[in-house]
Write the structure tokens for this entry.
Amino acid sequence: MSLALAWSSGLIALLAAAPGPGAVETLAASLARDIQAAHAEAPVALVVSSTSPPLGSAVASQLAARLAEAHLAPVVGSGTESARTLVSLRVWLDSELHAAGELRSARRNFWAGRTAVRPSGPVAVLTASAPADGPTRLLAAAGLRGGTLSVDPAPLARLPGRTAALAVGDLDGDGVPEVVVLSEQELWVLGADGQPRARQPLTALAPAAAPAREPFGTVCISAGRIAVTSARSDGGFLLQLDQGRLLTVGTVSGPTLGCGSGAVAGAYLPGQARLREASGRADEAFWGAAAEAGHRLLLLPDGTARWTSPDGRKRTLADVGAGAALVPGDGEVWLLASSAAADPARDHLRLLRFEGGPVLEVDVPGRVLQAVPVPGGTGGARALVASWTPEGGSELRWVRGP
Amino acid sequence: MRSHRLAIWVFCAPLAALAAARARDGGTLRIALPPEVGADVAAETPEAASVRELTAAPLCRLGPDGHPVPVLASLERRGDAVAVVPRPGVRFPSGTPLGAAELARAWLRGPATGTVGRGLLAPLRGGLSTLEAARQSKEPVLLLPLAFPWPDLEASLCHPALAPQRDTGTSLEGIGPYAPDGAERARAAPGFPEGRPHPDTLEVRALSLRNARRALQRHEVQAVFGDGADGAEPGLFATYLVLRPAAQALGQRVAARLDRRALVQSFVGGASAPLPGLLPAALGGPAEAAVAAAPAGTASPAVLLYASDRPAHRAVAERLQILLRDASAPLTLRGLPAREAAAAWERGEGDAMLRSVLLPPLPAPALAVVLALSGDAEAARRELPALGAVSDATQRGAKAAERALALAPTLPLLPLYVESARVRLDPRVVDVRRDAFGLWMLDDAWWP
């Protein structure tokens, strides 16, 4: 820990020594001007969050210095009880350094006593960006290394059979995502608490001429509808959750590689738990694929992954298993990857950045076969993984990360 | 019923230090069968049944929650009947689709008249006449009307003894993940409803136990059936001393002198445990045998039939002979191959016989099988409708266990021991499990 702090301090010193104003100073100066323009009253409480604690700390320090120069008596991270103005910011880095948040009056209503009521004063939206520089990237990287990747020890749900596909999305429009699991022979909809809400057998689908032995399929959620296909059946269903029942509202012709706008039509390889692009090379098979914010991921049966960024850059990663997902972070996309060499009782998840960034790792019981991002990071979870247990069942677990 | 009754759906083999994220396809799955297992052509032992399932799968499997999962057919309740609905496209290797007629013929050829099948199908209305009527059916669905409520029929139909097999004139063919391709080879069946297995080929080798172990060490075979002593889970392959009604005193003499634990340790071996009640402890049976007193009077000479091709039967028969000799009760042993011994018993020969049956993992159907084994048709007619009338599965199981305890002194059979299926596996093999009946499932087996 002390080593990490020392490294962070060293980086801040490096940042201070950099010639000319760095990205952090530029960003802080821009924010300070906006805060003054919003007629903030002293003292000003600053609450800055970031995927990288050192980066968030650096921005908060620089902003506090600028606000002190303006006699706004800044307080960082605490003192919100006594503050007259509260500034909440989130800081992240992609090709640029960004900050976004709000400024609001923290003057308390005397008559409210100890009841914490949100004041009705004006709210100002704060946004700022600055071109990223080397020291800022190093700070962000230090933060990610110092963050943690964790998997909930208690499964969200246990299923008696093995999972073929997984998706998370809001099916009923209540803003809370549901979990959709395709098992060997049926589709399950679970609430965010893991409780079953609906089940739909796939027996109405015609069997595939050469079904796959391993449970294998695709599930995509779009506009509250579920598109599901299985490598043991021909075609697929389009389903909708209606008052606790799954209604068939259409059919789908076949699987896709990935979901959403970046999805590509695919086809199952006869008798195998493999996909190929419908219009691509017939001899190129994939364990799966993902698409997220312009990024594309293809999982190859040799245990490698091909990751293409929105600007067309490609990266090949080794030791990536079948359970892998592109997970949106704060302005960037990460790869959550299981191991290609998992043993039947234990797997290993890694969180990777496109550009050689640092790695976070965590062990998972069982063998991870599916991983999907969680929209909006519900309940602090970044992703959901399904692992196969040696007993022949499956377990779903939330993955939490920076 | 005890909650762990289906716990035989267990983790087993995957000990590999390094595997892979998804299964690797290809290769040949080689299985060694020592003579003891190879002799069981009727696949009555769990070892032989495990191997036979690779080419003749059951209609369904019981999931960990106790519900049937379709393999060849789904099972539907239709009024007071159960419909066996073959899954679309399910065909024998010769191309004949599985339908009502093929299923009825398959059951009439053997299982329905055998001990286990008689017990499992005991609740059918009209008995075998229902199946006789379906022999010429053109329908794909076989409707099984019930004589009385029997909620466990669906689970009973998953028993490996009811796996459909078709007589081709020269051999029997089933529908499994592998299709026979010669006497000792089978090839992966691409159209099998659960998908083609990962290896391309299955080879079964008849080897002596010693050579089989050596082949396993050299990775020349991936599994040796009938070897190993994985006794961690209670078995459902139960052995009883079945008696003619006139020879019940013989059973009482044995019961009074028998130490089942010593019998199991010294004469049965392997993965076995004492069976003090009609049902094993996993199905609610007692942990200890009731104290039995030897009958008074002189014992008359008796003949004990046993399967000479099952080493445990031979050893136990000899042990019983010694026990009875000490009690001045002369017992003559008559060893015959398992099939011939069963036929001789059916013809009325012998006073007692050692019989082993694979019990279903639910107490009520297990008791139905035990009643069929006892030959006491009147007890079955009396007991089963009362059990089937209990709709709650847990209460039904508890009542079956209670009735088994009460019936034990009156039925002409003496429970002896239970065994688990024995297999020794190459530690590199992944995804091998045991099913709810305790059979080893190699359908999903693969190795990195």
In short: The first strand of chain B starts at residue 28 and ends at 33.
